[in-house]
Amino acid sequence: MDSSRSAQRAVIQFLRAEEEHASQIYSRMKEVYGEQCHARCTISWWCQRYEAGRVNIKDLAHPGQAHVVTNSATISAVDQLIRQNYQITTREIGVELSISKETMHHIIHKKLGYGKVCAQWVPKHLSENQKTARMGVCLTQQFLH
Q1: Among 54, 69, 89, 137, which is least packed by CB within 10 angstroms?
Q2: Backbone phi, then psi, for 115, in 5-degree steps?
Q3: pTM of the predicted protein model
Q4: Which InterPro entries match (predicted)?
Q5: Of 43, 9, 8, 10, which Cα lies nearest the Cα of 26?
Q6: Distance between terminal CA atoms of the chain?
């Protein structure tokens, strides 16, 4: 049984077209969908929208909603700025590229995998060469002690 939001909205739209009342729709849907059923107030809200003439069951874009800025061009621009100046701040990057703090955080930490150490951006994961070098230093230190 598809219990997605759009599937439930389609059921609400269909039953409302058959002129069923919102409380009847809620009762019928609660039997079918159980715990994953929309709340009664949500079903009433959608019934009102369909009565007012809405035909789309998908969410509409909200005014002021951010468009997708995490494209490859933006990600590479952020990476380039960080590589040019490892001490650059997120605020400076945001001003330079005109993107929000949240988007900046997502790109830097999730997409590029950088973290801030001693006021410098560094990759969170070491490359194989870096791991080998670190292991060599540790072994040398252990041998000295």
Answers
A1: 137
A2: -135, 160
A3: 0.43
A4: Transposase-MT_Hybrid (IPR052709)
A5: 43
A6: 66
